[in-house]
Amino acid sequence: MITRTVSQIASMCGAYRKGGNGELTVSGVMTDTRAAGSGQLFVPLAGERFDGHDYALQAVSSGAKAMLWQKGREVPAELTRMDMPLLMVKDTLEALQQLASAYRSELPVRVIGITGSNGKTTTKDMTAALLSASYRVLKTEGNLNNQIGLPLTLLKMDEDTEVAVLEMGMSGFGEIELLTKLAHPDAAIITNIGDAHMLQLGSREGIAKAKLEIALGLGDEGLLLYHGDEPLLREGLSRMALSAGIQLKTFGLGSGNEWSPDRIALDPFGSSFAALNNRKSSSVGMVHIPVPGKHNISNALAAVAVARYFGVPGESMAESFKSLKLTGMRIEPSRAYNEAIILNDSYNANPTATRAAIDLVAGLQDIARRWIVIGDMLELGPDEIAMHREIGAYLSDDKAEGLLTYGPLSAHIATAANDSMPRAAQAGRIRHFEDQLELAAWLRSELTAEDLVLVKGSRGMRMEQVVQALEKR
Comparing C-alpha atoms, which of 330, 341, 339 is closest to residue 290? Predict the structure, then answer.
């Protein structure tokens, strides 16, 4: 983590010191006094419902040794009496971001930025795992991928960190541009373009434009690795004025990409494939990832491509994939109370990701009955009802034997599926529920040990509660 004197930090973030000892050393940064450590810099952030300045004394109790402070804010008398070093800035969030960017520029670290509509976290986990075979790696924890989380991640880097793998999320235009210009990545990955944030960005073209902002922070000799099966990314890149030194490489399921898979084998607990470099007529060899689905093979290809770019040997990648630990609720396999297979994909949902999850289930063999459990897909904008109906129409009796839905929007999935899944409808296996526990109870009564259940839904629907109810013995 960052370790600097108060005076050095003031210089790095454009602050002036008020009180305290400028030679005092602080280690680490905290914005939440409930998760603090001794000797840190406290950054009081202000939101619509809170103001971190109000918690300054709690920060002292938690071990803060210095603080950023917004100019014009009254300083509590207790801070003045204890001669707390206050670094006065116009805006504490902007100062935090400036500090993180300055710290990144002082270290000989190489940075990889990852964005996309789906698969960011899985690709981040895979990339970090592969690079860890050859480098000291720091990666984004959880989903700390926004204007606050990314700077905090940069400031957690130790001086000897060799590679940082940073997830970059957004909900509107300009946000990825801000993050990439803070992190200055040496390589960037765009996993795909889906339907997430359609409400804010208006169209898939708008989503592609927002994701492509990641290229604006690349250095003159950086690498941009993007999903080559997505024409919107190719079209968007053709309109961007990128440095001639930036390398453009593609990955995807199509053989026209620089990196593509061969000899794919899927099961409910993982996927195997050979990673082919089509331009160099070479292969990394067979690898196995502990997560099913062709879309996750695509994510793994991105990780393989960037790891190879960084010089990681193919045999090291295969070993790293074997011990890979992924962030939860992304096609996470588990067992129900009766040993039926559950695929927990309840972290988030949009139409693109939901269709990919359905395709995954449809391709699995030796399953008695495949149950699809879907909650509402949120933040889709004015066409949200039509998008839910399209998911219902996308289903068929060949893809699943049962469909259970939860939430007002997902009722439209069930309605459309009554036409697209006539056998399931006739058997009474298409049902809509207004209560999660009722859904889980009904499914428990129907489930056999040879069945498989996919659970999918937006984060706000908390579909993991269905998973927990099915797992409970």
Answer: 330
